[in-house]
Amino acid sequence: MSKRLTGILLILVLLVCSAQTVLAYGYNWWFNEVHGDLYLAQARSPFRNSGGTDFYGNVTSNNNQPRTTGTTVHNGTDLGNGGQIYRNVYSVFDGGVVQAIVHSGGNTYVTVSYSNGAPLVKYQHITPSQGLAVGHAVGSTSVIGTLRDYTWGNHLHFAAQNSSDRVLKLFPHYRHVHEWHYGTSMDYICKDLFDGNRLYIAARYLNGGVSSGSTSLEVYYRINYGPWQGPKHMSKIQPTEHYNWTIDLKVMSGAPSGAIVDFYIAAIADITASYKWGLWPQHYSQPPRTPAEFQADGKIPKYHTRTIQ
């Protein structure tokens, strides 16, 4: 084969390879699932009106939501600040400062530790208040920082975390806030509720504060530890403030009463991106979508287990 022909073939191979999108699944453990229709320690908004009342701005991107850039889901919740009006950031609980970090870029943050069942909360893209230091006590009326000018627009990125830096869901702390769909705007897919064999769950994709929902929710499952099957698709129900997807696990799987069904959900966003899903129960920062993809990497997907009634 001539050198010229070899060169042409090499260029063609490179072009074909460059046209394919390769998703790297890192299996980083950013997340820790919060199950159930819970009410946990009630949080305040990190933004306040001039009179000191809570301001509930647009949730522009929620926790575990896929993004149009990159191959990782969003590890926190972004809040708009009311058209640059509300720049002060307040603590959402009473607690104590455990981190106050300033970087030259926009990724500055304050982390506050709380008690009474509340998690750690990290507030990013802010400048810590002057004099704020590790060990300082803060209340829910304390200004802990101000929003910084940021490349992607001024906004607050905040996330609940446990002591191992695993991101938790915020929705149980905002169940009282109807402006945030009673907490379900805070997380991409959350708030599972079982009524016998029927599962209800909320899934909201937020594009700049506009809820565009999800294209589909796929259920992958196995019966009595057998082979993984699916996907089966959940049904979208009349949108409510609480739940907007449902499926009957017995009808879906055909499993008899008493059978063990393990399953997980992939919520597919209506976006143009190579990576456009988030999983429930959440676990990874870069989760594959199908059981076959998990198995190809020698992994078992994080799943939920139910006994069929």
3D structure, described in words:
The protein is mainly β and 309 residues long. The chain folds into 2 domains: 104 residues, Glucose Permease (Domain IIA) (Distorted Sandwich), CATH 2.70.70; 125 residues, Immunoglobulin-like. The protein contains 3 helices and 22 strands. It is elongated, with a radius of gyration of 22 Å.
Taking pLDDT < 50 over at least 5 consecutive residues as the criterion, the unreliable ranges are 1-21
Roughly what is the average pLDDT, rounded to an integer? 83
Number of helices: 3
Cα distance spanning the termini:
67 Å
Structural class computed from helices and strand pairing: mainly beta
| Proportion of residues in extended strands | 25-35%
CA-based shape: elongated
> What oligomeric arrangement do these chains adopt?
single chain
CATH class of the largest domain, please?
Answer: Mainly Beta
Q: What is the gyration radius calculated from CA atoms?
A: 22 Å
**CATH architectural type of the largest domain:** Sandwich
- What count of domains describes the coordinates? 2
The CATH topology of the largest domain is: Immunoglobulin-like
Largest sheet: 8 strands, antiparallel
